[in-house]
Design brief:
Radius of gyration: 30 Å
Order of helices and strands: HEHEHHHEHEHHHHHHEEEEHH
Catalytic activity: 5,6-dihydrouracil + H2O = 3-(carbamoylamino)propanoate + H(+)
CATH superfamily of the largest domain: Metal-dependent hydrolases
Number of helices: 14
CATH class of the largest domain: Alpha Beta
Largest sheet: 4 strands, parallel
Pfam family, one: Amidohydro_1
Strand order of the largest sheet: 1-2-3-4
Structural class: alpha/beta
Strand content: 5-15%
Keywords: Hydrolase, Metal-binding
Number of strands: 8
Bound molecules: N-(aminocarbonyl)-beta-alanine, zinc ion
Distance between the termini: 63 Å
Organism: Limulus polyphemus
Helix content: 25-40%
Number of domains: 2
Protein name: dihydropyrimidinase
């Protein structure tokens, strides 16, 4: 695998690798495997991407939900809760940070996962979060739709969230910079293909549309709501991605020398999204009926007009692959510095010399020293402090040990523990 990644980065212009924490027994990587790939990405200067959901938990939940007789698309959502996404998001960030590898979380779908990304960035982790058009434009209430096809058409992973305030929240996070860019994870299936899971939600192919409508959805939900200004709109739809994937300013900027890929956006026009008029080769559009302000009047690609007033003028094969070089400075600048300054360092000490008196008895009256020695050796398995002057166990000590033993196991029965020297003199009193 490492060799393949090396060839891809060095000879084919690939600088990012997506890993799955979901899809148990298919794509799912375990922690040690993730660490391995993160280390390889780091060594190659690539960006590690993860699909963050806990595949083991999903597997358990799926069995449970199916056994309850829930076979429809709502089961997809119930089996992949926010917590399942948030746990994996947190774990991925921790693992990547441990090996100082930059991380990109694809399709951030929940408030919980977004909050974790924001918190870990605040703590200094190099992690980027990408919400997608689906999660910004619609929500998981569609899984409760009585029409199976409608509900199944919204199945993607992680799923849309039933909390209808989620899209607005994710947009707020983009506006504040806590999430950085928008994608789509465009991956469409028509009704017949989705029907593979007609009797079992776990078999519904995952994925929805997004690529054609992403700009419109982000403008409508971001700019028209006053959350994003037009410059931030450009940043989260274009420039930030170009920077992260190391193709800026060839892409993501309009200037002499950059590629002539330009969208002329008319903010005053409106259009209504529909499967009847979209250009996807699929029979459903998850944004069906959404009225969007802001319409691309012209799209220029490689200097040629490819969209003009709603009409598409493209020919197959004119697209070209853009190589993405490793060591993106926007991603790796801090990483390289951290490699230098965050090294653990060894403390220089004198060699250990065995002491002739290995009991610490300072401050304990001589008459109690014998008892004390006995107690200390009994305590060796525990965090030990000497007994108090009265001889009682020091209450600052932990009485917990992994073995389950208690510090006072030998004084039985437990309800009648003898105190050698309680305040006020020796007695056989109980405490
Ligand atoms: N988002 C989605 O369901 N896409 C299909 C493949 C994947 O899970 O990434
Ligand atoms: Zn994915």
């Amino acid at each position: 695998m490492r060799q393949d990644m090396e060839i891809l980065t060095k000879e084919h212009g690939i600088n990012s690798f997506k890993m799955f924490m979901a899809y148990k027994d298919v794509f799912m990587l375990r922690d040690d495997e993730l660490i391995d790939v993160f280390k390889t990405c780091k060594a190659l200067g690539a960006i590690a991407q993860v699909h963050a959901e806990n595949g083991d938990v999903i597997h358990e939940n799926q069995k449970k939900i199916l056994s309850m007789g829930i076979t429809g698309p709502e089961g997809h959502m119930y089996s992949r809760t926010e917590e399942v996404e948030a746990e994996a998001t947190h774990r991925a960030i921790v693992l990547a940070n441990q090996v100082n590898c930059p991380l990109y979380i694809v399709h951030v779908m929940s408030k919980s996962a977004a909050k974790i990304i924001a918190r870990k960035r605040e703590e200094g982790c190099v992690v980027f979060g990408e919400p997608i058009a689906a999660g910004l434009g619609t929500d998981g209430t569609h899984y409760f739709n009585k029409c199976w096809q409608h509900a199944a058409a919204h199945v993607l992973s992680p799923p849309l969230r039933p909390d209808p305030s989620t899209p607005g929240y994710l947009m707020d996070m983009l506006a504040s910079g806590e999430l950085q860019l928008t994608g789509t994870d465009n991956c469409t299936f028509n009704a017949n293909q989705k029907a593979m899971g007609a009797n079992d939600f776990t078999k519904i192919p995952n994925g929805v549309n997004g690529v054609e409508d992403r700009m419109s959805v982000v403008w409508e939900k971001g700019v028209m709501t006053g959350k994003l200004d037009p410059c931030k709109f450009v940043a989260v739809t274009s420039t930030n991605a170009a920077k992260i994937f190391n193709i800026y300013p060839q892409k993501g900027r309009i200037q002499v020398g950059s590629d002539a890929d330009i969208v002329i956006w008319d903010p005053n026009q409106t259009r209504i999204i529909s499967a009847k008029t979209h250009h996807h080769n699929v029979d459903f559009n998850i944004f069906e009926g959404m009225e969007c302000h802001g319409v691309p009047m012209y799209v220029i690609s490689q200097g040629r007009i490819v969209v003009e007033e709603g009409e598409l003028h493209v020919s197959q094969g004119v697209g070209r692959f853009i190589a993405t070089p490793v060591y993106s400075p926007y991603v790796y600048a801090c990483i390289n510095e951290r490699d230098q300054v965050r090294q653990p360092h060894r403390v220089q000490r004198e060699a250990f010399k065995e002491s002739t008196n290995n009991m610490v008895t300072d401050g304990i009256e001589p008459e109690f020293q014998k008892d004390t020695c006995c107690v200390l050796s009994q305590q060796s398995e525990f965090h030990s402090r000497p007994p108090t002057r009265s001889g009682a166990r020091n209450l600052q000590d932990s009485t917990f040990s992994i073995s389950g033993a208690q510090i006072d196991d030998e004084d039985s029965p437990r309800s009648g523990i003898r105190v050698h020297n309680p305040p006020g003199g020796r007695s056989t009193g109980l405490w």
